[in-house]
Amino acid sequence: MSGSNSSAPGGHPSPEPLNFSVHALPDPRDSARVRVGRLKMLFILALCAAPVVASYLAFYVFKPRGSAYGELILPTVELPSSLPLRDLAGRRVAPDALRQQWLLVVVQGADCPATCERVLYVQRQLREMLGKERDRLDKVWLIPTEADTDAPLALRPELQAAVSQPGVEVAVLRAPAAALQAWLQPAPGQTLADHLYVVDPMGRWMLREPIEDDPVKIKRVMGDLQRLLKASASWDTPGR
Known about the structure:
Distance between the termini: 102 Å
Strand order of the largest sheet: 1-8-7-4-5-6
CATH topology of the domain at 66-231: Glutaredoxin
Order of helices and strands: HEEEEHEHEHEEH
CATH class of the domain at 66-231: Alpha Beta
Protein name: Cytochrome oxidase Cu insertion factor (SCO1/SenC/PrrC family)
Keywords: Membrane, Transmembrane, Transmembrane helix
Region (Disordered): 1-22
Transmembrane segments: 41-62
InterPro entries: Thioredoxin-like_sf (IPR036249)
């Protein structure tokens, strides 16, 4: 018989030939590119953080501890996000409003007798002594209260005029005494009113200074502030 039968015996079609698909293996160069990308990202993050880390190392580590006249707070204490701050009119003030600037903080009562006025004077003088760097430091007066209330709080007219004087303004805020003591701490045997508190632009309390009347000792406090501002000059800018 001429020709050929295309069907298998028994009338069943012949099985289809097997097909083998060969898939490409992962390119080792892709994993290498991923690793390089990650390393670049880590390098950029480290580069951004380097100035902040370097300034803190310069003040905390490489400088001898005895070079600070005040007491370094280690570890630093973060500004509580729940701190109930109010202005004198009773309006709420967000704690974040105290960030992005170095702060020189005093804690004094609203009655502010002669000793309190002297503290405010020392605070003002220290800032003025910074010269061109003074715009990087804000003065803050925290008034401890018995409770969190929105009732207005009035200062003596002459005191109000002093803290509101153009060029020497003081940010006057109030908060419950217990809340302030949960953030700022006096030295053993002393009260919150016995110190100046230095807070960095990220809201961390990091230095406690004695309140001095002696010009020589005031100069030592001044030295601490100057070192802090110099160490942070690469990443901190004046104004909020």
